[in-house]
Specification:
The complex is a heterodimer.
Chain A (H helix, E strand, L loop, with lengths): L1 H9 L3 H16 L2 H14 L2 H56 L5 E9 L6 E4 L12 E4 L2 E9 L4 E5 L7 E5 L5 E6 L5 E7 L9 E4 L11 E10 L5 E8 L8 E4 L13
Antiparallel strand pairs in A: 1-2, 1-12, 2-5, 3-4, 3-12, 4-5, 6-7, 6-9, 7-8, 8-11, 9-10, 10-11
Chain B lengths: L2 H18 L12 H13 L1 H16 L8 H19 L5 H21 L3 H6 L1 H30 L6
Helix pairs in contact in B: 1-3, 2-3, 2-4, 2-5, 3-4, 4-5, 5-7
Classes of the chains: A alpha+beta, B mainly alpha.
Amino acid sequence: MLNFRRGIFRNQQLIPLIVAVVISAFLIILPLDLRTTASRIGTLSLLYPYSELDRYLRRIDTAFDANRELNRRLDSLSVLVSRLIENKYENDRLRAMLGFDLHLPLRLIPAEVVSVSFGYPYKSMVINAGSEMNIGPNMPVLTPSGIVGKTIAAGFHSSTVQLLYDPACRVAARIQASRAQGIITYAGGNFLTMRDVPAEESALVGDSVVTSGLGGIFPEGLFIGTVIKTEAREGGLFRDIKVLPGADISALDEVFVTPAVPTYPFLERQ
Amino acid sequence: MPFLYYFVTWAVVTFVQVVVVPRLVISGIYPDILTAVIIIISLRYGRRFGVWFAFTLAISVDLLDPHKLGWMTLLSSFLAYSAGIVRETIYLENPWFESTIVFIGTFVYLLFYRFLPEPQLFFANFSKMIAESFLIAVYTVVVVGFIIVFQRQRYGARELS
């Protein structure tokens, strides 16, 4: 026994192991409440910085996950809001068209714009209504804001519309206030020109320009646009009037086609 | 080993085990960095220092779990002592040998760490315990093996003291 003890203490390598085993065994046989207390003391002292760091990182992880979830919801809500805004605009347009339809004594056929072309040979657009709805060539196409052109060809389900922006398009028009008459043509950009207006006729900036009904296609009194500039030709008998179209022709969604020229006077935009 | 070096190693390993390892868990499998470091330190510095190092390192992490308090300290000390014996008998100073010892040591240590405190639970989930211990040892050696190889290539072989 004595030799055994001497052997243990002579072997310096064994001493740390024996100490470790004794302390470990002591910890293992401790009652659970004492072990819990020891664990709590150790966690709050020795491991406190690590525990705090771990807790802090967990909070960051949680915030990161919450942020990702919120971003996902934000994305879906953005899409929803975008759709709702689009629906609101469509609703506003349709309400305006409905009101227009109720007040104008014309038979109006609603149609949606399928495509718009500002290229050669016509500046035109295609609408989703054709001969099945009694639409044929040379019928006025208009919006609540003013006329936009006329049909030049009609298929069964679609029609092609020549826009006011087409250089070949001519519309007989007059100044609503002075009754001065002229011909509306495209002037480049987003403007029209009312040509051949007698120089002595009154035309003021802000006056409304409406169809005169003399061309045989557009009925009388449909709003075309507003006078924004008058230019007298030097030494001439006529002058040109620059007109801003009422309808935003480059951003059309829905239009009306009016299939026949009625025989009674039309309401004119004040 | 200088005391400062020892203290820094203890602080870094404790930090990794307490803060980093929980974030490396994949389906319940985690790299047991603490065990791997104890084995490597014991292989390089001998069983005497290895046991002290294992004891102080293990007891600090052991405090996190009051139900198993003492077991990690006990088993880590034996593990370090065993690794020290390996160092004095069959140690080859190359990363593949060290990685193999890390794998075997981690696997055996985990089996004992799961068996001794709760033997009934161990036998009730015997195959699961074996599989988990094996996968943890694999994960550990994958993570630590890269560090060993990098350290060997960067600093070269260290003379045995």
